[in-house]
Protein 1
Amino acid sequence: MEINRYFVVKEKIMSIAEIRLQLHQVIDTVDDGEKLEAIYTLLKNSNSPYKSMSLDEYVGAIDEARQEIKGGNYMSMDELEKEAENW
């Protein structure tokens, strides 16, 4: 099963927004300071390959991607699937 930007819970696929909401709800019920500190440390120090973007950076990235596509710099789904077989 491929999971990309989604988390599977009991055969239900949750979006990032749904996971975020669930985390908020669970964290709001925690009364143990040590658990909250552990959660905070885990989330604060995560080595995510993604960085936050400003709206201007986001729009710029979209514009750049559109230019790449217009310039023919993209892969078809078939090409991508063939490349993925070699990973």
Note: Residues 52-87 form one domain.
Protein 2
Amino acid sequence: MKKPSAIIFDLGNTVMEEISFDDLAGNKRLLEFAATKSGATIEEVQRVADEVGKDVDRFRLESGCEFSFRTFNRLLFGTLGISFKIDLPRTREGVLERFGRSQAG
């Protein structure tokens, strides 16, 4: 097998399209699986998600380090004191994938 001279990674809708989803709908569905909710409303979850997202983006741009979806969720829900009955990050990703998809996308 011939060694490739280059590898292209596409993460910005150039070759492959990113799936858009409705954060609010996905997080609302996730809260249904929460073992502890700490009284956080879906609006508060979304507000904190937006704040954490900005911080993560700033860190990513400054350091070049990426955060996985699982890590972001742990940071978001841990910040709010929310834990889940399901401890499978893939299950959480599946919930967001299935229920959080944007109707327009």
Note: Helices lie at 23-31, 42-63, 69-79, 89-99.
Protein 3
Amino acid sequence: MLSLILPSLDLIGGMVLWLGMKDRASSPRRMCRLYKLVCLFLLAFMGSIQTRTSVTAKALYPYEATSANQLSFAEGDKLGIVDASDPDWWKAEVGGVILFVPASYVEFTEGQ
């Protein structure tokens, strides 16, 4: 995740410095403080973003979705489960989209 933050810090810092050059009244010390403040804000913001991790489950039976927020799958399909807290409907991620799957139709694979 740090590799995603560092380019953002460079971009934001560059914008701060460019704005400071436009405003000739800004001292280098003031621009440095502003840059540090923006970087700290960005790091705090990025730290508050939670990343989803998934565990793999195997479909025991085929399932045909009955609504747009459900996932259709075939028997034997591997699914990335991101939330199994509900006993009836689990959340699976497909292409960055979270969809519901019936918990009774899938089981976690070995080693999960």
Note: The longest helix spans residues 2-22.
Protein 4
Amino acid sequence: MKTSAKKLAQKRAAKNLRDQVYRAAIKARLTEELGAACANCRAKDRLQFDLIHPVVPRPGTMSSTSRLALYSQLHKLGNVRLLCEPCFKHKLKTGQLPSTPPPAGL
């Protein structure tokens, strides 16, 4: 590998690492600000962000950095909450949150 190609690869690797650290910090801050628990059942593991009133059709198609930036902005407007994976899946299937915590296998 040529020296310039090696330097370019090192710069890309450093940028990727910085991006990962940035995304982890934003995610941790948002999670903490949202109470670090499912808004529905108060579970503390397998949490994911949920838009209360969707403003984009499929946030999952966005880059993770763009998605976190969107969640940060929408959090300021009170439009983001944390849901555990079972509650989130139930919401996706039925369109509403479960009234009781869903079974762990859902």
Note: The two ends are 49 Å apart (CA to CA).
